[in-house]
What does this fold into?
Amino acid sequence: DVKVTQSSRYLVKRTGEKVFLECVQDMDHENMFWYRQDPGLGLRLIYFSYDVKMKEKGDIPEGYSVSREKKERFSLILESASTNQTSMYLCASGGGRLYGYTFGSGTRLTVV
Amino acid sequence: QKEVEQNSGPLSVPEGAIASLNCTYSDRGSQSFFWYRQYSGKSPELIMFIYSNGDKEDGRFTAQLNKASQYVSLLIRDSQPSDSATYLCAVNGGSNYKLTFGKGTLLTVNP
It folds into this structure.
């Protein structure tokens, strides 16, 4: 089975801190994605990557950046955390348009 | 803007009944369709996918696709309390690899 591992299950950070969320997949997938999920708003795409060192903005990229230096690892960076970035963050990877995504277990981030 | 619409629910059915979850999509070029189940506090889990018009069955689950009507549904037969979750419909357009997700339907199966 594809495994997508997110480094932290729960995280509490202070306003203004730089936050790194790490995601690693073990199935050699080209495509990786970062979403946030908030009640009533569904899944919202932050950034995605279709190749090493490639990245594209999703629907809500403001306040975030990403890094993909290796195929298996996709990092989400909150440059200066704010309270409105308190959310569940989900990483996903996928092998192409005929295949769905596999999600990681999520990181619940609280910014205080 | 590609859209995927789902009834937010909650949809409540008694144990043993058939639960019917519906989804419509706006991109006529969409090629592949997915259903995810998400338990409260957990991440989405892929349970079904369908590419061709018609029905696809897997155990108690049946996915139905009608491309002419731009409609995809998920039927859950003999619903169990353990099926209580939010069900997300996701659609992959023909020209890229991104999925567009609906906001999900909350299903509650009452014992």
User: Anything to note?
Assistant: The first strand of chain B starts at residue 4 and ends at 6. The two ends of chain B are 40 Å apart (CA to CA).
